[in-house]
Amino acid sequence: MSKAELLERWYTRVYIDGDLDAVDELFTETVQARGLLADMQVGPEDIRVFAMALVNLVDAPNLRLVKIVESGDWVAALIEAEGKRLSDGAPVRVMGQLLARFEGDRVSEAYNSFDFMALFQQLGLLPEDALVLGMTGQKIA
Length: 141
Hints:
- By secondary structure, the chain is α+β, with helices and mostly antiparallel strands.
- The chain has helices spanning 3-16, 22-26, 44-55, 116-122, 130-135, and strands spanning 27-34, 41-42, 58-71, 74-85, 91-103, 106-114.
- It has one domain (3-135): Nuclear Transport Factor 2, Chain: A.
- It contains five helices and six strands.
- It starts with a helix and ends in a 6-residue tail after the last helix.
């Protein structure tokens, strides 16, 4: 199985099927993922909690790896995530990127960038114009 296939299978198991045991199967015990939480590296247990929180924010989650590039031990992926808002079933869609280094069949290093602001706006947790407000220097309340 290619590294891209391993990654796609993992995203499906964790974020669609809710199988949090898959976290331990994909990541080394010492993996440090960056980019999920500001100024923090997170390990497997943190990733498990993070994934569980995200899965519980939407109904009918779906993920698609739009573009994948493999080079040696590295995989880069553009990820599209969709779901439905819990409150009213409105569609939610965000994009993200991942750069991961594999050791064998497991990720040993990961860098993430997801549009959480867009996610939280679509979920109604931030004002719709939060990005515009921030760009003008206004405090988002």
